[in-house]
Amino acid sequence: MTTTPNRRWSFVEMITARHACIGISAGLLILLGSWFICRAATLGLNNIFSREYTFSDSRPLTEAVALEVTRNTLEIAGYAPSHLKPVEFRPNSPDELPERFFARNTVDPQSGYVLWGPENSAVWNYSVSVDKHGNALRCRVCRSK
Q1: What's the whole-model pTM score?
Q2: How confident is the model at residue 123 (pLDDT cuts 50, 70, 90)?
């Protein structure tokens, strides 16, 4: 049985392999940086790695449903909703506006957000957004800056 000696790479082959590795690494770095900038522009720097939670609910999106779902979202996300309360986003609202805690989107009435903060404070720490698509409610928790 004959064996072939280990083949040594030529200088050109080594340079080509090095350039290929550098090119692939640079491409991945640019892709990762683009994702990071896009998420930061959309969600803010504090919430780049936030998750979306989906619930199945056929009820119309009312303030009571939004409060219930956002409380469940906070609990699933690992925050203690027992120490939090919804914060009024419109404390001096006239009586014809019944929603005080659920800030409904005026362009898309099937979405909005609820602010949550400590029980004895008017300051909010978390904003839980709600989007209703059919029977699915999508929620995302964002921390204040």
Answers
A1: 0.66
A2: confident
Question: Residue type at 44?
Answer: G
- Delimit the domains of the chain by residue range: 10-49, 50-143
pLDDT at res. 47: 62
How far, in Å, are 18, 88, 94, 109, 115 from residue 61 at the CA level?
A: 57, 18, 21, 9, 16
Torsion sign (Cα): 76, 80, 82, 86: negative
Pairing of strands 126-133, 102-104: unpaired
Contact between 101 and 62 under an 8 Å Cβ cutoff? The reply is no
Q: Which residue has the higher pLDDT, 11 or 98?
A: 11
State residue 120 phi and psi, 5-degree precision: -105, 35
